[in-house]
Amino acid sequence: MSLTLGVLSIQGDVLENVLAVKAAIDALDIDGTVTSVRTPDEISNVDGLIIPGGESTTMGRLSVANGALKILKEKIEQGMPVLGICAGMIMLSKTAQDKVVGKIDQPLLDILDIKLERNSFGRQRESFESDISLNSIGIPSFNGVFIRAPSISDVGNDIEVLSKFNEKIVAVKKNNIIGVAFHPELTSDISLHKYFVNLTNTLKN
Ligand code: GLN
Question: Is 3-204 a CATH 3.40.30.10 domain?
Answer without folding.
Answer: no
